[in-house]
Amino acid sequence: MEATAVYSSKGSPFVCSSRIAKPKPQNSATSSPFRIQSMATQKPLPSVAKTVGSRKSSNSTVFPLGEPGPRNSPVAAPPVKLLTNVEKLKLLTKAEKAGLLSAAEKFGLSLSSIEKLGLLSKAEEFGVLSAATDPGTPGALLTLSLGLLLLGPSCVYLVPEDNLGEVVLQVVVALICVAGGSAAFAAWNLVSNLQKSN
What we know:
mainly alpha, 3 domains, 8 helices
């Protein structure tokens, strides 16, 4: 094995060799004053036909440069049948037995008042029914409820009690967070049960 090193210091060549050999004529295109040459065997470069990317098979797809690669198509979940699930869970029977309908009527919320106020059309506008069938809604409601339930006590802990205004702020934020977190938790439970009963 022979190793040759050519170094240049300010234009004067310096040759170092491990074995004395005849100087070889060097091509000016490939020679460099900082070239280190080794006579060890080199691996042949793989040909284009042998590379993995150029194999042609019936189940491969070629994407041009700059185009996005393969996409994982989301598995389509079966649609949620909201009214069927309400019937399976017997929610209307449970609401009737709990006296929710009569309590709502006492507060002035009857079917005719719902119709007059246009609450059903507003629910459609805001996408309440589509949100009830969306698979991401239960996770969002649970995250919201846990965030609110953590925000109330942390506000009480972090806000100082130096004057009356800060104490009132603590009470108001804690009550809103506890009520909102509890409502979001109940909505999460209801929506997840409606979606599970397929």
